[in-house]
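We emphasize that the prediction below concerns an isolated chain of 503 residues; any contacts that depend on oligomerization or on bound cofactors are therefore not represented. The input was used exactly as deposited, without trimming of termini.
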Amino acid sequence: MADEIRNPEAESQEPEQNVNELRQIRVDKLKALQDAGKDPFQVTVAQQDCHSTYITENYDELEGKDVAICGRIITKRPMGKASFMNIHDRDGKMQVYVRRDDIGEEEYADFKKYDIGDIVEVKGYVFKTKTGEISVHAKSVKLLTKSLLPLPEKYHGLTNVDTRYRQRYLDLIVNPDVKNTFIKRSLIIRAVRNYLDSQGFIEVETPMLVANAGGAAARPFETHHNALDEDFKLRISLELYLKRLIVGGMERVYEIGRVFRNEGCDTRHNPEFTLMELYQAYTDYHGMMDLTENLYRHVAQEVLGTTKIVYNGVEMDLGKPFERITMVDAVKKYAGVDFNEIKTDEEAKAIAKEKHIEFEDRHKKGDILNLFFEEFVEHHLIQPTFLMDHPVEISPLTKRKPENPDYVERFEFFMNGWEMANAYSELNDPIDQRERFKAQEEQLAAGDDEANTTDEDFMTALEYGMAPTGGIGFGIDRMVMLLTDSAAIRDVLLFPTMKSVDK
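Result of the prediction step, given as a token string:
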């Protein structure tokens, strides 16, 4: 039936050929309509009282009743005095039966000239065809927008990945599953907000243009503000401003927003991405673990209806208690090296050479422990796992463990071998914090362009006093990737960062 209709306009052309000619044909049709006083671009409003999914889900109630729907023509089969077409709206597709005797000769003659891609308004009644397909029997069809460019041929679709990302609007038109991914993304973010709001958190907004881009190990983008004649950076994290709000007594705050890191692109990294950070006074990283576990379960249940998710064929169970393991124990388990027995930086470098781990001269024992983790452990952490107690060298904003000050009260949350979140018992000792910033600036001077510099206003805030606080940052895009079984971060960003096309 109409589902099997192909686009004759696309079938008549060779690949990458005749597009300009086809466009000119459509422009000529538009000119004829305008000359006849039927300019579709002068239509400012249309009637739409329901969508396709509503009709199919409520057929028994709507059978024989009039509806008004709007959408884009995806397939069309003219058959003399009667025709079928499929239109796509926000929710999906609806078959429309158009008969000359019902809409009139003039309107039917205009309709037969409509092209695949045109946007129309259909008024008619709901019925089923002889094959049982729920459809709308048209009483009128009005052209709302003339499409001047032909859509990709239906059966081959838009398969070029680069084109799909660059022309997301076209991707959304011809690949319905793509739209479903972004609808689910919206539901995921809504579920995150609803959960945090229910726990007494307040959503806030903090600056994107900052004088000091701190809170993460990343290279920032830099710009210049002409009116102030000052250099600024795009934020790489939300942390330092949110902590200022904890100092101000807000106690539970979160922000979901874009951050920017001047780094490469791969399946899990885009220079511009969505981060969610939250801070809660009077708790620590154990409280953040409990919150993370409950949040992930809530979101999966709300959006997917289950706490078991499948990514690339692998099932991960959010319903079971998440594993909790220290970085030292994880490296001992998977690499066979016990860093509790390594006392000096020189010993750490020696074992790194033995295990063929590349390091830099500036690296200390804690840095090398982290390199061992990245090489031997990370890819094993498939089921939900809290990787705890990082070395102080790689955690400049985190409280030390009182019983072992070489390590800090920090965890990273892993699933599918990916870091999904990063959390601390936040450092609120201003004297210790200044020493950590000093160490970061030494690393910056030694060539580490991802090291932080001292944020003096943040230091002033800490000296007024910040309550004991737990904080966490979630990668929203990676959460969406897992919950939608999407292979790459670009699949869950409507408009990912792309290199300009040569002109």
